[in-house]
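Tutorial handout. Part one gives the primary structure; part two gives the three-dimensional structure as tokens.
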Amino acid sequence: MPTPQFTEWHTAEHLENEEDIRLYLDACKAYDDPRLMSFAQREAAKARENFSKRE
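Part two.
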């Protein structure tokens, strides 16, 4: 069986506006996992940083 090939995924690059962030955080919250929420909040902060660079 061949070894699977994976690419890097950067969530913050795919969150394009505040609505995307809200939906992403809501989806992560549904898993009730504090580690996931911590990660999601960091990704949301990175996405907002990206917004400010675009403006």
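Part three, for discussion. The mean pLDDT is 94. The CA atoms of residues 26 and 32 lie 10 Å apart.
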